[in-house]
Each structure stands twice: as C-alpha cells, then as structure tokens.
Amino acid sequence: MKKRRFFSTMLAVICTLSLVLSGCSGSKKTDVSGAGPKDSSGAGTTSASGNGSSEIDHTSPLTLEVYDVAANYQGVQSGWFGKVVKDKFNLELNIIAPQASGDGEALYQTRSASGKLGDIILLDNSPLQDCIKAGLISDISNDVKNSKNLNQYFDQYKTFNSGLEGNSEGKIFGLPCQITNTSPTVYSENTLYISPLLPWDYYSEIGAPEMKNLDDLIGVLEKMQKAYPKNAKGDANYAISLWRDWDKGGTQVTMENAAQLTKMYGYEVNGAVMVGNTGDMKEVTDNDGAYYKMLHFLFQANQKGLIDPDSGTQNWDNASTKMKNKQVLLFWYSWQTGFWNTPDRAQERNAYIYAPVKDMNFFQDADKYFGDGRAIALGSHMEGNNRARAIEFLDWLVSPEGAEFLHDGIPGWSYTKGDDGKYTLTENGLYGLMENRPVPEEWGGGGFDDGNSKINQWPLGSVSINPNTKEKYHNNYWSSYLEANKTTMSKEWSEKYGEANQVAYLMKTGQLKPVPSVNIILPSDTTDVALIRSQCATLICDASWRMVFAKSEEEFKSMWDGMKTQLDGFEWAQLVEFDKAKFQKVIDARSAVVK
C-alpha cells in the first residue's frame, strides 16, 4: 500500500472520531480550530532551517524547562549529552519529571494552573489534548514547515494532529514520538518487544527442553535456578525479578509487570480492558483473560521460589542493577538484552536469546510510523528568540546527527565510521551503557549511562533508516553488528529452530501477525472517570501484588474474587464501558489501515 493511501485513509478515520475531552486547568483557553495561542511564524522557525533572514542569537546561555512524563530523572541534564547540547546550542535542559517527583499528578496540576507547564513539554496523547484546549501548548505548524528536518515528517505530524478535537485542518501542536520513516504495516525488527528471553548457556546446559506452555517455562526456570544459584560474582540468582514503581502509569490500572506479559498471549492491556491481536476486547478482570493468566504464572513461579524476594519493595533501578549482573534469568523486554548481551558474550554462549513456548500467540504492533502515544510540544509562552532556539533543538533531535547521538552514543568513542560509510561499535559502544563506562573529559566526563539523554524518549524511532549509512539507527541492525553476531549462540539457535531470527521463526509457526500501527488521540477521563480509575488502580495493583505472593492456590483465587467484588463498589462497570468505547476507536482505525 502506498504512503499516500495510508495518509488519506488515516485522515478519513481520524476525522470521524468524536472525542469527549476534559480540559486541564490553565490560565488560557484555546480554540484549536482558530488561531493558536502563538503565531508560529516567528524568527526562530525560519532561522532553524537556515532559510530566513533572521538569525538565531545563541550568545546568552538558555535553560529550557522540559516537562517530561517519560523521564526517570529530575534536574539539569549533565554528562556527555548535556555537553553536546551546551556546545552546539548554548542550552541547558532542566528536566521536570512527574515520575521522579513523588507526586506526579500534583506536579502536573500545579504547573498547569500556573499557565506554564514547561518550555518543551512531553505528554501522553490525552493530556496533550487537554493542555491544548487550556492554552498551554503552542501551534507550531509554520515552525515545522520551515524547519529542515521536522518538515520531512510533516504529513505524519499532520495526520496525528488532525485527530485533535476541532482540528480537522491538521494544525500541528504535538510532534508524536517514535515516528519512523518505514511503514505502519511492517514490523522491521528481528525480535519482539515482549517475549521470553533466557541465557542461552544456562538453557542449553539443562538440555534446552521444548516448552509447550507456561508450566513448562516454570519448569525450565526452576532447573536453571537450581543449576545456577549464583552469578560469577557470587550474588544470588533468581528466575524473575519484579519492580512496582512502574504501576499506575497514565491510565493503567494494573500491575505493570503482569500487564506487559499479557502480550505473550495475544493481548495488550489498556486501562480496564485488553485489546486482542485479532481485534477483540476483554475486561482485565476476565477470569479466562491474559491478565489473570500472567498473574497466576507469577504466583506459580513464587510458589517454586523463583521470584526475587526483593520484588515487592524494590524499584526499577534496583532490579535493573541485578539484570546488569546476570542475576535475573528471565527477561521479557527486548531492550533488556542491552544490559548484558555483547558479541563476545554471545560467542561464549553467555547471552540472552528468545526461547520458544509453543502455545504463545504474540501481540506486536507494526513499526510506529505515526508515533507511539506520546508527543512533544512547545509551551504557549515561548516567544521570539527563545522560541526559535527551542524549535532549533527539536529540529536537531530528528536530524541524522541528533538521532545518532540519541540512539548510538558518542562518535569515535561508541562507534567508528568505515571507508564504506558504515558504522561499527567499539568496545565502549558495546559495554558503555551496561558498565556505565567513564567518558573522556572532552565529552564531559562522568559515566556514559549517567550522561545519556534523560529525556528518555525518542522523537524518531530507532528502526528508521539513517540517510548517512542507509542502515537503521538501531545499532543491532548495522551490517557490522550482524556480521559480528554470527556467533556460537546465534548459529546454535538457528540450527535448532531453523530460522535466522525470532521474528522469522514466529512468522513461520504462525505465532506472530503484526498489528497495524495507528496513533490516534483518545478521550481523556472525565472528573468522575478519573476518580473511579484512581480508586480501581490502587485496588487492582495492591491485590495483584498480594496474589503473586499468596500462600496457596485457594488464597490466590480468594484474593481475585475479593478484588472483583470490591471493584463493583467503585463503579468498575462505568470505567470498563468508558475504556471499551475509547479503544474501539483504535480497533476501527487498525481495520481501516489494512483495507
């Protein structure tokens, strides 16, 4: 299907969506269909592209406040990425992170009420819509048109923004994150976002037994933990390590670890409902649903002593440190392999790789061509030269140079450029993140991970093609990396399963049919729904964690039944109906893309 048809189809779908939205508090009200809160034809826009007569003044240092729902760090960006931004733009980035603030909702409400949420603002789609209506977000249509790099994605930005209430003209207020220059129906990676990943050496050395279902997976994990109770440093190993500080993010009401695992059985949790890879929908409290199934899997694992006992109290930082030390046997996020895997370790068979489980049926979005559910925006108070400098920075983030810094690290230190123009990871590129290797003073010093971008969100997805190399930005797909990764592990895996990689294998077995990628702006919670959601989320998350650590099957089931009874008293049915109506729009949009 040609791109033009994608755009026209998506615009037609988006324009039929009637969204009911609640405004966030703010000092201004904006009619999205009329002129935006600020004219986007200021000096900075044309200057950023180099086509205007007005030059951007970089003389004075400028600190941009970045309100960022994706960030896990609060404060001024330091280290090597901070130095790159400072040297190139004379900018500092002061990250305002709701996740790291202690009370993200209070921070959001307080800053919204002040009329200044941030200079640069990164939000989930629904709050973005609210804040546009409240006058906190600027119309940047002309800025995008006149920018060298942002302009390349103008049609994708317009398609997304056409879904804003009253914005059928497609004025651009938000820049959807993770957009790609590929296709919304193609999955370009060779691993899934969520799937069971095991250390190949441990799995092979217990015989790499066939796994038909979750019971078999638990059996394998039990054998591995018994055979390898400690890592090379003598620290205790556990099959599974959990963390609870990611719970209740956005509109989610479930235990995040269990909610992500549902994707192994064909469902993605969205608030009170689960959307299936065939277009069906279920409540998360369905007794036969994937959420219950994965909670029960974690419960069974704990009954066997396979859950890290710190799981109930530790945060992500604690858990990820153990992953970097090979103390955790089961990974499920594809990116977790970056904490451990290297070509050298794969050559030694000492790395993580997909381990097939025959009854799994995966939920996997295609490439996020239109974005991923979050967007970057500009505060409506931004004017003149400060506005121009902020736009210049955003334009750079989607440029090849900016994307290389975000995805690949420091040129010459993280990777080298060959005579053929292709890139090759250095030892620092392989180990810099996982070991937080020290960076040269010329790049700001400190540890590589410490100095990595704290924005923690990519404006341009890593599967996009880098025009400088004609390869993906994601270094796992560089020809040099693929060649280096023809390792003992990959060869043994391919010989055993008959395919070059996980995606090829799952396409062959019929366990993977990528879901078309769409990115539409969905209704925000009304005040009543928000209260119901908050109460239900607290109840469900608390009950879910207690169920994982229940003493018996009887207690597990009793806790589940008790939770469902209590939910009835919190008007759970109203929340379910609200979320069903909301996510039916997503299902309809996906259907439209493939017609």
Automatic annotation (TrEMBL):
Residues 31-57 are annotated as: Disordered. It comes from the Bacteria. Residues 1-22 form the signal peptide. Keywords: Signal. The keyword Chloroplast does not apply. Residues 40-54 have a biased composition (Low complexity). The lineage of its organism: Bacteria, Bacillati, Bacillota, Clostridia, Lachnospirales. PANTHER family: ARABINOSE-BINDING PROTEIN-RELATED (PTHR43649), POLYGALACTURONAN_RHAMNOGALACTURONAN-BINDING PROTEIN YTCQ (PTHR43649:SF33). InterPro entries: Bact_solute-bd_prot1 (IPR050490). It comes from Lacrimispora algidixylanolytica. This is Sugar ABC transporter substrate-binding protein.
